[in-house]
Amino acid sequence: MEKGREVKPHIGIFGRRNVGKSSIINIITGQEVAIVSSHPGTTTDPVKKSIEIFGIGPAIIIDTAGIDDYGDIGMQRVKKSKQVIKAIDLALLVITDNQFNHFEESLMDEFYEHGVPCLIIHNKTDISALNPDLVHRIGQQYNSRIIEFSAKHPENLDNLIDAICKTMPETAYRQKSLLGDFLHKSDIVLLIVPIDTEAPEGRLILPQVQAIRDILDNNCVAIVLKENEVDNFLKNTAIKPRIAICDSSVFEKVDAQVPGEIPLTGFSILLARYKGEFGHYLQGTPEISRLKNNDRVLILESCTHHVSCDDIGRYKIPHWLERFTGKKLVFDVVAGLNRLERPITDYSLVIQCGGCVITRKQLVNRLKPAIDHGIPVTNYGMAIAFMQGVYDRAIAPFKTI
């Protein structure tokens, strides 16, 4: 569960060993995608499964090890299971025989801490009926719903699917628009795309593709060109774009080319507003000016890729930060959703990438420890715009929306 590569909604299924988690996954998917065994501890590490849920669409369900495992290895499995909570949009907690004590309560506390809604499934009701007292207790204490279910006789599968759909936050599968609240029908959007060593061979990077699709979905027109064609395009056409959007690495150059009356922003800033912590970024970005010698800066990449000498997160941003602040800084780069090697309190600033390959929930929980400890956070595009002197212009289109 280290890498975030799926923007589909994520569902985690939790519970003690041998409560029927894998059986429930197989019933939901209609396939034998999870190993079912009467031997406790069959599922050892969290495993992702692709599923389709009517009413939600494609989703990822994560099968986890039993939370009542024991011994050194068992406790490591429990730890890995709980790490999944930071990456999911919905939790399914499976219980049997009306057992709900410190194992389940510990999970419920973590679900609450990370803002994850939970649906409780009382499995094996063909063996042990659900106790109304437990229903009342959980309703009072956690405001969570309990579904009676039998993996052996799943007659009420439709009720379970309906409960999953009602408990899943709509924001997990109904994505808002990148630009829909800014554009009007037939607006023209100028996309400025540098083709350098960071550009993948034969294709555009994901944020650029997402922007093009969003523009088309809003019945607008996308014009795509390289940064060295901007002057000629604006001089030789009568087109005045509704907004220009560029890659963060060419902010300074494009700012000089695009007239001030045309709004300008970056792909990474679009993503910050779309799925990040935009309000916290607005507060945290100016803190770049307050960095001191030997301050430690955490750079979070949400994907893993081949690293080149032009890598934006590992080379360009550190170089620009030291040049802008005039300070000697210490940098740590963490890729994917890997755990941090140091306490978050060791850092004076956190810089998150756009997060195009992870869900909003994963990004929010990635930044939560820093925000909870009052550590300034920003993202690639906003930090670069600030250091290149175009920050106010780059965020202006969205400050009043």
What does this structure look like?
The protein has 14 helices and 14 strands. The protein folds into 3 domains: 163 residues, 3-Layer(aba) Sandwich (Rossmann fold), CATH 3.40.50; 83 residues, 3-Layer(aba) Sandwich (Rossmann fold), CATH 3.40.50.11420; 113 residues, Rossmann fold (3-Layer(aba) Sandwich). It starts with 9 loop residues before the first strand and ends with a helix. The chain is of the alpha/beta class and 401 residues long. A 6-stranded mixed beta sheet has the order 2-3-1-4-5-6, sandwiched between helices. Strands 8-7-9-10 form a 4-stranded parallel beta sheet, with helices on both faces. Helix 11 packs parallel to helix 13 and helix 13 packs across helix 14.
Tags for this model:
401 residues; alpha/beta; Rossmann fold; globular; disordered N terminus
Low-confidence stretches: 1-6, 34-39, 305-309
Main beta sheet, described? 6 strands, mixed
- In N-to-C order, the SSE pattern is EHEEHEHEHEHEHEHEHEHHEHEEHEHH
N-to-C span: 35 Å
The percent range for strand residues is 15-25%
Count all strands and give the number. Answer: 14
Which fold name corresponds to the CATH topology of the largest domain? Rossmann fold
Spatial strand sequence of the major β-sheet? 2-3-1-4-5-6
CATH domain class of the largest domain: Alpha Beta
- Whole-number average pLDDT? 87
Helix content: 25-40%
